[in-house]
């Protein structure tokens, strides 16, 4: 059985994982910990915990003549090193920023400086200072109509996953509800639709009841799609 254990050593300024022999005495351990924590051996108080969040130690290593094995030190435990004389060792002062002089700038002073992050990214046109690119032009109705010819076979995608096949019967703007823009009117192969080509009393194309639907162009793919009975649910975006 190995006599080497791997424990976590924490102090006001350090946190590390260390390997020690269980035959090592507490006095010898303190000498090694002085190099790790910067706390003089004579000022060290050692407490052993099962984990970092425990408030009650399972052992206090207060006998420098005893070996680590005497205290049942095991791998994964935490050894907390407290400095009993911090004024002599300056322990914890490296993490104490209360005495650090603060450097404050007004907003105007910051804007005038040339050595700031803002001035750097502005100079190199990064982030919000990058050149604005023109947004892609919205396709015209003529362009959409050319891409989705009336009478073409198509497949309509749904957010839920299923795809429905049918024939394009209408391409253009509609007047139903607040759904502006160009829509594709499709006659499905099966009764998966929600209308017969008319919505809110206005007819856009004609097909059997429950076979008509409207979808945005981005949901429609034109191609060689033979009729197929998929038996799927209704498309959520159809009207």
From TrEMBL:
Family membership noted in the UniProt record: Belongs to the TBCB family.
GO biological process terms on file: cytoplasmic microtubule organization; post-chaperonin tubulin folding pathway; tubulin complex assembly
InterPro entries according to UniProt: CAP-Gly_dom_sf, CAP-Gly_domain, TBCB_Ubl, Ubiquitin-like_dom, Ubiquitin-like_domsf
Highest rank taxon of the organism: Eukaryota
Any one annotated GO CC term: microtubule plus-end
Protein name: Related to Tubulin-specific chaperone B
GO MF annotation terms: alpha-tubulin binding; microtubule plus-end binding
Keyword Cytoplasm included in the entry's annotation: yes
Annotated ranges, domain CAP-Gly: 174-216
Protein keywords: Chaperone, Cytoplasm
Compartments reported by the entry: Cytoplasm
């Amino acid at each position: 059985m190995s006599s080497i254990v791997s424990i976590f050593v924490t102090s006001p300024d350090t946190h590390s994982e260390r390997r020690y022999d269980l035959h090592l005495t507490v006095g010898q351990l303190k000498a090694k910990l002085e190099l790790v924590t910067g706390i003089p051996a004579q000022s060290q108080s050692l407490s052993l915990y099962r984990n970092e969040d425990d408030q009650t130690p399972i052992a206090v290593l207060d006998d420098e003549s005893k070996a680590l094995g005497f205290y049942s030190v095991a791998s994964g435990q935490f050894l907390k090193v407290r400095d009993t004389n911090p004024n002599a060792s300056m322990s914890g002062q490296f993490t104490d920023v209360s005495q650090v002089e603060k450097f404050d700038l007004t907003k105007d002073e910051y804007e005038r400086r040339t050595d700031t992050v803002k001035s750097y990214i502005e100079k190199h046109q990064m982030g919000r200072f990058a050149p604005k690119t023109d947004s892609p032009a919205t396709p015209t109705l003529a362009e959409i109509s050319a891409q989705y010819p009336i009478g073409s076979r198509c497949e309509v995608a749904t957010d839920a996953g299923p795809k429905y096949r049918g024939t394009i019967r209408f391409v253009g703007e509609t007047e139903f509800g607040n759904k502006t823009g160009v829509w594709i009117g499709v006659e499905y192969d099966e009764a998966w639709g929600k209308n017969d080509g008319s919505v809110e009393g206005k007819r856009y194309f004609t097909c059997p009841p429950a076979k008509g639907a409207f979808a945005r162009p981005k949901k429609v793919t034109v191609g060689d799609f033979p009729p197929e009975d998929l038996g799927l649910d209704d498309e959520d975006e159809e009207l």
